[in-house]
TrEMBL record:
Signal sequence extent: 1-22
Residue windows of the ANK repeats: 66-98, 129-161, 192-224, 230-262
Entries under PANTHER family matching the protein: ADA2A-CONTAINING COMPLEX COMPONENT 3, ISOFORM D, ANKYRIN REPEAT PROTEIN
Organism: Gemmata obscuriglobus
Keyword Glycoprotein: no
Keyword annotations: ANK repeat, Repeat, Signal
One Gene Ontology term of the molecular function aspect: transcription cis-regulatory region binding
GO biological processes: positive regulation of transcription by RNA polymerase II
InterPro entries in the cross-refs: Ankyrin-SOCS_Box, Ankyrin_rpt, Ankyrin_rpt-contain_sf
Record's protein name: Uncharacterized protein
Length: 296
């Protein structure tokens, strides 16, 4: 009898708890508002966007089909007042969207970056490609965001220094530890070589390319491109960037020419003949480059 009574009480508690949970369930954002969230933040006026989020307070926590929150978009499009309001309403500054991006990975200006940092943004969190917020800011050429991150105490790494063209910092890092120049790329990448040398070539920074080569960088270290089925090297990046001087420098240092030219170009010469200057094409051919299907 006592057991039956306890079971009955337990069931009543569960029903009561369930009822309370349903009563307290937060209101969800209108799906139409969520679907248009990206476009709204990209194209709307600042005051209209702020008004929208205030009228839809559930946007503080809700996300669209890409798992992006309003704070992601406020960060991406530099909507300072909206970002401030969302943060004041306890929006999660470390919420994760597609590709594991947090708002700090997509922030486009220093003002919003500083708000996120002050609110506790995780500056060591890595996205799906292994990038920290500092590295993402450097790659996207948001120098002011990168400086805000550095000012918070985050240490400058070689990759970010290369992307930000901080030549003196790169020179010091390589002097202190030349092995940094020979660090292999971590994993694969859709957009070319991510070795230090590849990054410098893609940034068209001949001075840093020279520093890395002098420090012992492997001119033929590759990064696998899953969408191209081959490896991209610093030469790939230099040809894509259209920098004839870096192309010549890499070839002079022994760069191999049997590397991918991208998704639709099995060999780098295939790409060059379609998109590069005649001087780059001639440099590649002189070094022995062949088009796909042609005997080497």
């Amino acid at each position: 009898m006592r057991t039956a009574s306890l079971l009955l009480i337990g069931c009543l508690c569960l029903v009561g708890a369930g009822g309370a949970s349903r009563a307290e369930e937060p209101k969800r954002t209108d799906p139409a508002v969520l679907k248009a969230l990206h476009t709204t933040f990209a194209d709307g006026k600042d005051d209209a966007i702020l008004k929208l989020v205030k009228q839809n307070p559930s946007l503080v926590h809700d996300a669209d089909e890409s798992d992006c929150t309003a704070l992601h978009y406020a960060a991406r499009y530099g909507r300072v007042e909206t970002a401030k309001w969302l943060i004041d309403q306890k929006a999660d500054v470390n919420s994760v969207s597609y590709n594991r991006y947090t708002p700090m990975h997509v922030v486009s200006n220093a003002a919003v970056a500083k708000l996120l940092i002050k609110a506790g943004a995780d500056l060591n969190r890595k996205d799906a490609w292994g990038n920290t917020p500092l590295q993402r800011a450097a790659e996207d050429e948001h120098a002011d965001v990168a400086e805000a991150v550095l000012a918070s105490g985050v240490a400058l790494d070689l990759r970010s220094a290369i992307m930000l063209k901080k030549r003196d910092a790169v020179k010091k890092m390589l002097k202190d530890d030349p092995k940094l120049a020979r660090r292999p790329s971590e994993g694969s990448n859709l957009w070319g070589s991510i070795t230090p040398l590849g990054l410098a070539a893609g940034r068209k920074d001949k001075e840093i390319v020279q520093l890395l080569l002098d420090a012992g960088a492997d001119v033929n270290e590759g990064t696998f491109m899953p969408n191209a089925g081959g490896e991209a090297t610093a030469l790939t990046n230099a040809v894509w960037a259209g920098d004839k001087e870096i192309v010549k420098l890499l070839l002079a240092r022994g760069a191999k020419t049997d590397v991918t030219g991208g998704k639709f170009y099995p060999n780098i010469l295939d790409y060059a003949r379609k998109h590069s200057s005649q001087e780059i094409v001639e440099s590649l051919e002189k070094a022995g480059a062949k088009v796909s299907g042609q005997r080497k």
